[in-house]
Amino acid sequence: MRKKRIFKTILGVSLLVLMTVPIFTRPSYVEAVSNANTLGELKKELANYKAQREKALSNKNQTQSQINASRNSIAVAKTEIDNNRKKIEDSKKEIEKLDKEIEETDQKIKDLMVAKQLSEGDNHYLEYIFGATSISDFIIRTSMSEQLASYNDDLITSFEEKIEENKQLQADLAKREKDLDKQILDLEAAIDSLGNKVDAFSEEALKFEDEIKSTQELVNFYTKQGCKDNEALTTCVKVVSDTGFARPLKKGVRTSNYGYRWHPTQGVYKLHNGVDIGGNAEGTPVYSIAKGMVGKIIRKSSCGGNMVYIYHTVNGVQYTSTYMHLLHIKDGLKVGDMVDSTTQIGTVGGGASTSSRYGGYDTCTTGAHLHLSLAKGWYGKTYVSYSSWIANLLDPGLKQYVNIPGYGKYFYSRTW
Predict the structure, then answer these.
(1) Domain 238-411: CATH class, spelled out
(2) Is the pTM here over 0.85, yes or no?
């Protein structure tokens, strides 16, 4: 029985592991459909990038308008709060004024009570009347008593009503201030949310801007090579083949693996599309990992910084290698340049000179390192869309590719 229980436990744990493994492993390789087999199709992709950039900019502007409207509403609400507070202070002053008036008329009310006592047959009225010091004073006292006797209830009621109205006004204004405070908090929360959307749309627009520039360079290159709009790009321009890969640096240490991880700067769980290699200072030379052709160049991207994409044909298979967070791209390097494994394409960046942490432009790096990605196919040639590039990604650190030693392990040679 004990063995059966152990077996069931092991079986349950194994099933649980099998159920969770797909969540943490990279997506399986999916052969991407070629979106740009010809120069004409590549031009259409370029036009599509431009349209998507304009859409992102339009969404950004609309969201910014919503933010501005919310800020205006907050300003109106705060103005109303200030005005209401002034009304409350005025109301308090009015109550003080009424209290003072009541105090000042206290003697009149006492005189009124003497008159009232007269109507009830009390002798105090006579004492009040005969307390006059002259005939004119006698007449005034008699007249006043009659008037106060007539308006006693109205006078007291009027004072009390005004005081109650002012107290109610204060209560209503205080409640309104609470409602406005909540409204302001809701608007400020909305502004924060909309601000995140603006940032997202801005980043999206910048991404398309980067793709537009790099794709335009590729279109210009193919055009200069004499490629026709209906001519296949793979036959128009030949990429020199190679038999294997070399490491992009003379030494280094793997500081982050390929695959899903918690992003150190974006604060989300997402795919890390390459291998990070640290252990080198900014300015250290970076080399192409094989013979090939420079296919795309992106400069000062907000996430990735300076990037170079190189097309390779290794043992008959097409690949695209990507080098991110470069401090500098080698002077004169341009789309269409033929390179080999001895060609320096740039220098290591990602540290104080480029990272946004230190005031730079690259928001996706926390220290000096090279990010190396590898994908099947030629990104920007046999396919253009970013999603297709993601679908074709490989782990460049594997032995059959660039062979980067495991996490935390150093290497001291470009070959193995």
Answers:
(1) mainly beta
(2) no
